[in-house]
Amino acid sequence: MAEPRPVLAIDLGTTTGWALQAGGVITSGTVRFKPSRFEGGGMRFLRFRSWLAELNSHSGGLGRIAFEEVRAHAGTDAAHIYGGFLAHLSAWAEEHGVPYQGVGVAEIKRFSTGKGNAPKDAVVAAMRTRGFTPTDDNEADAIALLLLTTGGAQ
Length: 154
Prior knowledge:
Strand content: 15-25%
Number of strands: 5
Radius of gyration: 15 Å
Shape: globular
Mean pLDDT: 93
Helix content: 40-55%
């Protein structure tokens, strides 16, 4: 029987949390896409697409992508940036034939903590209890999303 293709879970944003399950092993981290003062705002999205392509290549080809689906943002800039990342993610996935799905914030929090309105630090603590060492809430959200969408009970 063939090994399942890698699954990527991401918490989209200027600091993107990610978790990848490949060959039964979970790796995770964060990557920053903030443009430098000498770059235009679109550079964050070009670097994001490049990062997706690199991850796809290094993992042997992504089988699917799950992303945290945010419906409300604290500010207009955050909403615009999230929309840009989502547009590039969906376009990249369509180009490469990789299925993708959004999962609501409350569902991820409920899965990881038992409460749909849990604070960010509760998700971090829940992932640490499961043996992971997320550096921040972005990585913790991505790990929780990966476990939720792969049926992982680590």
